[in-house]
């Protein structure tokens, strides 16, 4: 990656249930350091309705250019009624604009996961342990089992960055070469679009 290239990590906390633990962890030194190590330049966070205080405290304590930002351009917003597709697409490679492929880190809401899978970049899914039932955990485990995403753990979030890089490599071989007539060059993203009837 050249020094002028852009590599985006987009984090979505969700719009309904607060997930302060995830927000705090992505703004913590180990995660930011891991992003820098893997040549990310931008951290874009959708911090939800209740996360602004955490985000504002971080930016106040770590103004632009300070060591605590690890040379990352860190931006955030609470909610967008039109959805998050534009932000998710900012993680896709765009050689004309010197953008290299980044990653999406998402809470384990089914809507966010399905949108992220359409993009076709590495996806890390972090279930919210504060929720009463375990449907997020079950969903995250299943998509990881299928090789479509990485399940992130709050106490080991830095590992997710490395696992996302490995997923980037392995996903490029999907579908398997021995899959006969199944030769969809759009990979998993194309299958998701076809199965769910998405039209762009």
Automatic annotation (TrEMBL):
It holds the Pfam family Glyco_tran_28_C. Residues 8-163 form the Glycosyl transferase family 28 C-terminal domain. GO terms for cellular component: UDP-N-acetylglucosamine transferase complex. GO terms for molecular function: N-acetylglucosaminyldiphosphodolichol N-acetylglucosaminyltransferase activity. InterPro entries: Glyco_trans_28_C, UDP-GlcNAc_transferase. It catalyses: an N-acetyl-alpha-D-glucosaminyl-diphospho-di-trans,poly-cis-dolichol + UDP-N-acetyl-alpha-D-glucosamine = an N,N'-diacetylchitobiosyl-diphospho-di-trans,poly-cis-dolichol + UDP + H(+). Heterodimer with ALG14 to form a functional enzyme. This is UDP-N-acetylglucosamine transferase subunit ALG13. It comes from Talaromyces pinophilus. The lineage of its organism: Eukaryota, Fungi, Dikarya, Ascomycota, Pezizomycotina. The gene is ALG13.
């Amino acid at each position: 990656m050249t020094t002028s290239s852009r590599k985006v990590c987009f984090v979505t906390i969700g719009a309904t249930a607060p997930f302060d633990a995830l927000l705090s962890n992505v703004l913590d030194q180990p995660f930011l350091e891991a992003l820098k190590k893997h040549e990310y330049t931008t951290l874009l966070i959708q911090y939800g309705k209740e996360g602004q205080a955490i985000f504002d405290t971080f930016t106040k304590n770590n103004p632009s250019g300070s060591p605590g930002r690890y040379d990352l351009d860190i931006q955030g917003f609470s909610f967008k009624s039109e959805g998050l597709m534009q932000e998710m697409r900012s993680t896709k490679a765009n050689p004309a604009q010197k953008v290299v492929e980044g990653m999406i880190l998402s809470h384990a809401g089914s809507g966010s996961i399905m949108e992220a899978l359409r993009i076709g970049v590495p996806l890390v899914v972090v279930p919210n342990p504060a929720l009463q039932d375990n449907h997020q955990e079950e969903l995250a485990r299943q998509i990881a089992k299928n090789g479509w995403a990485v399940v992130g753990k709050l106490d080991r979030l830095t590992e997710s960055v490395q696992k996302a890089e490995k997923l980037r490599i392995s996903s490029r071989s999907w579908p398997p070469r021995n899959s006969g007539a199944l030769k969809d060059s759009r990979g998993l993203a194309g299958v998701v679009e076809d199965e769910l009837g998405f039209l762009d």
